Amino acid sequence: MARQRSTIRDVARRAGVSVTTVSHTFSGNGVVNPATQARVRAAAAELGYHPDVVASGLRRSRLGVVGLVLRPAVGEHPEHVSDVDYFPRFAGAAALTCLEHGYALMLVADPTVPGGPVTAYACDGIVVTDPVADDPLVAYLRSSRTPYTLVGADVNDPDDPWVVDIATPEITDRVLDHLTEAGATRVALVTGCDPIEWNAATEQRYRERMRESGAPELVVHALELGGGEAGMQAADDLLALPDRPDGVYCQTSDHARGLVDRLLERGLRVPDDIRVVCGSDADRLRATEPSITAVDLQPEALGRQAAAGLLRQLEPGLDLTVPDPQHGRIIERRSTARRAV
Amino acid sequence: MARQRSTIRDVARRAGVSVTTVSHTFSGNGVVNPATQARVRAAAAELGYHPDVVASGLRRSRLGVVGLVLRPAVGEHPEHVSDVDYFPRFAGAAALTCLEHGYALMLVADPTVPGGPVTAYACDGIVVTDPVADDPLVAYLRSSRTPYTLVGADVNDPDDPWVVDIATPEITDRVLDHLTEAGATRVALVTGCDPIEWNAATEQRYRERMRESGAPELVVHALELGGGEAGMQAADDLLALPDRPDGVYCQTSDHARGLVDRLLERGLRVPDDIRVVCGSDADRLRATEPSITAVDLQPEALGRQAAAGLLRQLEPGLDLTVPDPQHGRIIERRSTARRAV
DNA sequence: CTGAAAGCGCTTACAG
DNA sequence: CTGAAAGCGCTTACAG
User: Is A90 in contact with B89 (Cβ distance < 8 A)?
Assistant: First the structure.
C-alpha cells in the first residue's frame, strides 16, 4: 500500500543531502550532524515520508515480524478452527507480547504445504504450535537457521532447546485424579490422530496410569477434523466395549461435545452413569446441558511464553519477563459433579 | 530469515533458462512451455528454492498481508491489554479469516505514533479497532487510498462506508433494561475517556434514556489506563452523589472489577444494594465474588466481519460469508441476580 | 560528517 | 514461448 508515496530520494532532494544521509537519519546508523538531521526530518515531514519497511526488510534481511504457524490441522483447514477456543487466544496473547517489544506478529499459513503461500519465510522468526512428529517445518527452520519456538515438542525430538513445555503428563494425572474423585472407576481416553505431543504424551501417560492401577486401557482415536461427528462415533465405540467405562477423558472440545450428546441420546446419564472431562476448554462446553468439565490450557500464558522465547533469540538484550503458566487448571462443571448426596 | 537461500538466478542457471521464465513459472504470469516449467520446478526443488515474498512485495507493492491496529490505548500501551479479553479474541478470529483466503494477518503498532514502528504501512490493507475521533490513521489510510475497515465508527464521521457496526445504542438499551428488571431504579453510567464510538454512543444513548424516563443522568468518566484504581475512584464518586444509584452500567472490565471491589469495601452489597453490569466480558468478571454480569461483545464475530470487509476490497471476486454477530448478548451473573424470593 | 554507487531478489514491459 | 535489462526503495561499505 501507499507505495505511490515519496521515497528517500525525494527527501534527499528536498533537504539538499544524499540518500545516505537520509537513511542514516532515520535508521540511527552512521553519524549525521544534528543540524542536517533537522533539515532531513523537516523535509520528510513536509513530504509525509516514512521509510518503507519492505524495501528495508529486503535489504537488511530483517522485517521486524514474528510469524505464527498454527498446526497441524489449522494450517491446512483453517475453517475448522472454532472461534472461541485455544488458537485465537494463544495468537492474540503472543501478538501483544510482540507488539510490546516493537515487533509485529503475523499469523501465517504453514509454508511447507506445497502450493500454499510462503509468507512465513519472510518472518524473522517463527512460533509453531503444535509441531507434528518429524515436522518438515521444524526441519526447515533448523537448516535455514531461522529462530523458532515450539509449543509442545516434536515427539521424535523431545530435547529441542526451544520448546515451550505444555506439561502433558501432569495435566493427564490431574484429569485422571479428578475423574476418580468424581466417582469414575473405569476411565477411557478419547484422543486425536494428529501426531503431536499433546496427543501422544496424553495417551502414554494414560496407559501408564491404567497399568499401574491394573485398570483396562480403553483408548479411542478420533480424527480432529471429524468434529462432533467423530465424537459421536467415539461414544458408540465406547458403549460397544464389553466393560463400559464410567469416566471419559476426551481431549478436544469438538469431540467432547459430540460424545456427550451421543451418550445422552443413547440413554446414559452424564455425570451419573459416565463422567466426562474435556482436555481443552471452549465456549461450547459451557453453554449447553450438561456443561462439561474442562482443562484450562492457559493459551494466553503459553502464547506469551512462546513469543518471549523467540524475541529473546531475536534480540538477546531484551528484558522479557512473562508469567509462568499454571498448567492445566481444571474447571469443574456438571459433567463431573458428584451425585447429590 | 533464510536470505542465505538460493534465488531466482540460481534456479534459472540450474534449469538453463532466464530469470523471467522462472518468475513466470512461479507467479503464473506470462506463458511458459509446460516442459520448461517442469525443468524449472525440478531445479527449484533441488535447490530448495521458494520465492522471496519481501522482494516480490517490494516490486509489486503487494505483500499478501492484512494489518490490524488495536486502538486507542493498545497501540501506545500494549502492556495494559489484559489477556483473556476482547482484543486477543478479536485478533485471533480476524487472523483465521485472513488465513482462510491466503492472506496473513499482522498485528501492528499504530504507525501514526511518532517514532514508533511503521510496519503497518507495509500492509495491503488495515483493520482498525476502534478508531478515535478524527483519527489520524484513518485520515492517512484515506489519503493514501489504502483499503481499510473500522470497527466502530469515527464519531465525527459516522457515515464512513467501511465501518463494521457495533450496535452500541441497542446494547445500551439492553443493559439498561436488564438493570431495571434486576430491580435498579437509579442507574449510573461509568464510561471511559477514549474518544471512541463505544464510549460516546453509550453515553449518548444512556442520557437519552434517562431523560425519557425523567431519571437523573449520573455519569462518571474513568481513564481506560487507570484500570482497577480508576474503577475504585468511580465507586467513590458514585457513593458521593446525593442520590446514590442502585444500579451501575460500567463499560470496561477493569473498571467494573475495581468498582465492585470498592463498593463491597465500603459496606454495600452487590447486587442487593447496587446492581452492576459490565459492558465487555472478561475472565476476571467470572472468577471472583460476586461474579459480574457482562455483555458478550462477540469479538470473534466482529473480527471475522472486519477481516471479511477488508478482503472483499482487496479481492473483489472473493466469496466471503461470515456470520452476523448477535450483538451484545448479556451474560447474567451474580451482580444482577434478583433477591432470592 | 557526507555522498556516489552497488545490490538485496524479484517483476515486467519490451524485443525477439 | 524466452531473455536482457531496468527498477521497486532501501542499506552499506567505501572514498572523500
Answer: no
C-alpha distances out from residue A124 to A11, B99, B105, B279, Å: 29, 19, 15, 38
Residue type, A308: A
Give every CB contact of residue A274 below 8 A, 6+ residues apart in sequence.
A184, A245, A246, A247, A248, A263, A268
Would you call A105 helix, strand, or coil by DSSP? strand
**Tens of pLDDT, residues A9-34:** 999 999 999 999 999 998 888 788 88
| Nearest CA among B35, B3, B29, B30 for reference residue B16 | B35
Terminal-to-terminal C-alpha distance of chain B? 66
Q: Is A6 on the interface with B (CB under 8 A)?
A: no
Q: Which nucleotide is nearest to A62 (CA to C1')?
A: C8
Q: Which three cell numbers stand for residue B31?
A: 506463458
Measuring from the CA of residue B11 to each C1', which nucleotide is nearest?
A: C9
- Mean pLDDT computed over A2-15: 80
How buried is A34 (Cβ within 10 angstroms: 0-12 exposed, 13-18 middle, 19+ buried)? exposed
Q: Give tens-digit pLDDT for B17-73.
A: 999 999 999 888 878 888 888 999 999 999 989 999 999 999 999 999 999 998 866
**Cα–Cα distance measured from residue A195 to residue A155, given in angstroms and rounded to the nearest whole number:** 8
DSSP-assigned beta bridge partners for residue B107 = A105, B68
Task: Please check whether residue B158 touches A, CB under 8 A.
Answer: no
What is the dihedral sign for C-alpha A6, A12, A18, A20?
negative
Task: Give percent of chain B above pLDDT 70.
Answer: 94
Would the pLDDT of A244 be above 90?
yes
The C-alpha torsion from B205 through B208 and B214 to B219, rounded to 10°, is 50
Q: Which pLDDT does position A142 carry in this prediction?
A: 92
Q: What is the pTM of this model?
A: 0.89
Task: Give me the sign of the Cα torsion angle A5, A9, A10, A12.
Answer: positive
**Alpha-carbon distances, residue A252 vs A165, A281, B229 (angstroms):** 19, 8, 39
